[in-house]
TrEMBL record:
Highest taxon of the lineage: Bacteria
Family label: Belongs to the phD/YefM antitoxin family.
Annotated protein name in UniProt: Antitoxin
Function: Antitoxin component of a type II toxin-antitoxin (TA) system.
Organism: Candidatus Manganitrophus noduliformans
NCBIfam families, A to Z: phd_fam (TIGR01552)
Length: 100
């Protein structure tokens, strides 16, 4: 198992290693709050995280879905062209404010 270079403790392990050491890895995740990036043939296929991080991710997903729903409602009935024009205008205003 190797450590991925980041601030948080993310370990990388093959699916075979995870299968062989699942109990130990769960203890490590639970007590050290590490995360495990599971790979197969060198490619990431899954992640194992502690329950606290999992719950945060679920809450963020719910909030994101709520925000997307609000945006969809705000532009309901508008054409793509109208929305793109509004976005261009907003970007222009934002850039001008940033120059002040």
């Amino acid at each position: 198992m190797r450590q991925v270079e980041r601030d948080e403790m993310i370990k990388e392990a093959t699916a075979t290693t995870v299968r062989r050491n699942l109990g130990d890895l769960i203890k490590r995740i639970q007590h050290r709050h590490d995360s495990i990036l599971v790979t197969k043939a060198g490619k990431p296929v899954a992640a194992i995280v502690d329950i606290e991080l999992f719950n945060k991710m679920r809450a963020l997903e719910s909030e994101f879905d709520r925000l997307v729903g609000g945006l969809q409602g705000a532009f309901k009935g508008e054409t793509i062209e109208t929305v793109e024009k509004a976005l261009r205008k907003a970007k222009t205003v934002s850039r001008r404010r940033g120059r002040r």
